[in-house]
Amino acid sequence: MADQTKTASSQKLTRTDLLSMAVGQIIGVGIMTMTGIAIGFTGRSVVFAYLLGGLFTLITAVPQIFIGGTANFLGGQYSQVALLSGRKPAGIFTYVNLCMIIATAMYGISFADYFLSMFPNANGKIAGFIAISLIYLLHLVGVKSAARLQNLLSLVLAVAIAAYIAFGVGHIQPDFFDAGQFMTGGFSGFLLASVYLIFATGGATYVVNYSSQAENPTKDIPFAIVASTVGVVGIYAVMAAIASGVLPVSEVANKPLSVAALTFMPPSVYAFFVVGGAMFALLTTLNFSIGMMVYPCVRACQDGWLPMALAKTNKKFGTHHRFLLLFWLINILPLVLGIDVGIVANSTVIVTQVCKLLVLISALQLPKKMPELWAKSKFHVGDGALKVIGAVSILITVVAILLLLISSSAIQRYINLLFLVIAVVLTFLREKKVTLNLGYTEK
User: Fold this and answer.
1) How many angstroms separate the first and last alpha carbons of the chain?
2) Can you say how many angstroms the Cα of residue 91 is from the centroid of all Cα atoms in its chain?
3) Cα–Cα dist 35/326, whole Å
């Protein structure tokens, strides 16, 4: 069977493209909202909570780097789970991963809301429709076009963040380390904030789903994961110092970044920060998420988990137009029809962590399933070290999932359970019709 995920060499993603994609995925509206919640947990020590949260994120990324640096898995994380853990985990991964498509429906709604906050007399639905449709059209033309857009959006996003830092750093109060403002929730509050911020600093590992589109995936993808995470975490820590330090903790706890920004940004710069920061963060995350979902789904079609007709390739551009059309409709319809999918979309955050767990568990199978390639990998470690790193990564992820479950409403927990049950049932119903094909190359 011809591999429908391969791309012409001129359209391959470079290291810079992958880095930009990863940065755009990490920087989302989470920084705008999660920082205030973390301040509520621990006060101004949120700065160090971000650093510890970033360390947790990097630890859980190491098994993904081990796998991605060993071979080029053409279906990204799906192929990793399929080849290292087998059919049942691959099926569960496939159907759980589809839940992420529902979550992307919130991007259009959120973009329209932000647009209306800046331009009250405009039509937010039309603005959202145009923005989302443009992104999907670029993916239809080719992943390289989407990468160029990501580079441009990330540049504007970087300028917006730089403006926040430049205008705000001089307004940090001299009593920043005052005992009443620091470690307000004790050690437990600090640790809780650190684990919570994993969700603000994570996301770079999904760049592995672009493996089939990368020039040099086994080298560039591990680099993109580490460099983007370290860079963004450092920036987030500085932003958190400003957000928690320009006003008393009581005034910024559980509040968005915009509360602090209003005190030191001129109106025009503040408007640019909202547009270039929050709105562009939504677009970069959506732009990344499209390819992140398409390529694993294509391989799942080729193996038999999903209808093969969905993986059909556009003759002119070589892109998967049917999947793109399906995902576009899922994004557009709730926006155009005014359907509130917030509860369902937000509920998928927990169940999709199951996909992360499956990848972490799969990494432990490298010595058994890919002994020769693993032995030659520049990321190779001994079996004992691999088990320790894997166990710590799994523990951190399980704790993060438990934190999400505790902080979620009952209906959100029920929705997650429903999604997981559906994924397991579909896996058992479809398994006998599935044939796992070779889904990796050495480089």
Assistant:
1) 19
2) 21
3) 34
| pLDDT 10s digits, 258-277 | 888 889 999 999 988 887 78
Mean of the per-residue pLDDT values for the chain? 89
CB 272 within 8 A of CB 160: yes
For 404-442, what is each residue's pLDDT tens digit?
888 788 888 888 899 999 999 999 999 999 999 877 888
Is 328 in contact with 136 (CB distance < 8 Å)? yes
Length of the chain: 443
Burial (Cβ within 10 Å: 0-12, 13-18, ≥19) of residue 406: exposed
For residue 214, which phi and psi values (nearest 5 degrees)?
-95, 150
Give the residue from 66, 72, 81 showing the smallest Cα distance to 13.
Answer: 72
Number of Cβ within 10 Å of residue 398's Cβ equals 13
Spell 70-108 as b/e; 16+ CB within 10 A means b. bbbbbbbbbbbbbbbbebebbbbbbbbbbbbbbbbbbbb
d(CA 69, CA 92): 24
Residue 70 and residue 219: Cα distance in Å, rounded?
Answer: 9
Where helices occur in 304-382 by DSSP H, the ranges are: 321-337, 342-351, 353-363, 366-369, 371-376
In 3-state terms, the chain is what percent helix, strand and coil (to 5)?
A: 75, 0, 20
Query: Burial, 121: exposed, middle or buried (Cβ in 10 Å; 0-12, 13-18, 19+)?
Result: exposed
352 contacts: CB under 8 Å, gap ≥ 6: 96, 97, 99, 100, 103
Contact between 331 and 105 under an 8 Å Cβ cutoff? The reply is yes
Contact between residue 351 and residue 420 where contact means Cβ atoms under 8 Å apart: yes
Q: Is residue 370 helix, strand or coil? A: coil
- In this structure, are residues 189 and 183 in contact, taking their beta carbons and an 8 Å threshold? yes
The 10s digit of each residue's pLDDT in 70-94 is 999 989 999 999 999 999 999 999 9
CA–CA dist 95, 409 (Å, integer):
23
The letter for the amino acid at 63 is P
| Cβ neighbours of 384 (radius 10 Å) | 8
Is residue 361 a contact partner of residue 62, using CB atoms and an 8 Å limit?
no
pLDDT at 8: 53
CB 146 within 8 A of CB 138: yes
Global model pTM greater than 0.85: yes
Q: How far apart are CA 235 and CA 253, in angstroms?
A: 20
